[in-house]
Amino acid sequence: MNGPASAALVAADVLSEGSPEVPVTWAMALLTQHYGLAGRLSPLSGERDRNFLLETPAASYMLKVSHPAELPLVADFQTQALLHIAAADPALPVQRIVPTLAGQPSLIAQPPGGEARVVRLFTYLPGVPLPKAQRSQAQARELARTLARLDLALRDLRHPAGELELPWDIQRADRVRGLLDSVPDVARRALANRALDRFAANVQPRLAHLRAQPIHNDFNIYNVLVDPQDHARIAGVLDFGDMVHAPLIDDLAVAAAYQVDPAGDTMATLADFAATYHAVLPLQADEVDVLFDLVQARLVMVVAISGWRAARHPENAPYLLRNNAVSWDRLAACDAIPTEQARSVLRRACAVA
Question: In this protein, which residues make up the domain named Aminoglycoside phosphotransferase (predicted)?
């Protein structure tokens, strides 16, 4: 794997190793001083940040203390995205930024004995994590509509952090090819390489001509909450930490990759999901034509990067590989479908010439 990809992956791996502990007493004092709030504060799980749930008589909030290795510029991209969404589409179910007493959306603070870190306070979104919810076609369609609205809300945002390289950016999927050398199963390694070959032949030459904008870039089932009383209603979209300025169609490809049922009708599922998105945010013909190959590229990235990280952190392998087996199955299901056939089905579904 080439140098830039290695550097981006290692940097992301540092962030995934877990953030240094933050004393609850320090966090509570910070909330009182900068937000004028007090209540019950308890730790929440988080892959790379230190998060806390603040419960007050009036409302609940989430305090996020970013990983010390995360650039303030990157944190600000997420902050500005949420502020932009709140203005563009206030009904979208995303967290809202709670300003400090000084009216600032974030602040820099240094925990005892630690490094300076970005601190933000968000509204708290209750709901059922999608992996624990009952799945349905109505839910899948609502996911597609919500993503389309999110992309519409983000389309006018511009931020310098959007140009930074991220390991999960599908437009650079070819850079994970070297990671496949460590896949022990020859058939699986060949399967992944075929998908990357199609990406190189069918997608890369078109990338420069595709519509680009800031995208969520990680619209997977673990970043979505649903209404406890109605699992078809989306109650929350979480984790804007992988945002990037990239082709718009990449966002749909990420989300669609997690909709593939290896035991079901792959093209019927993808076509319905794409058509539902298209009804809210119309796709262009060149975007529809690369969608199927982008879905497979995302699946390759999941198995390649998760496998690489699991080898580096065997103690955390079960968590890192939680999507690995089903991603291989999804990739195999897609591999069995000729690209031209998939393009034809998707074009008909979206009614593009």
Answer: 45-277
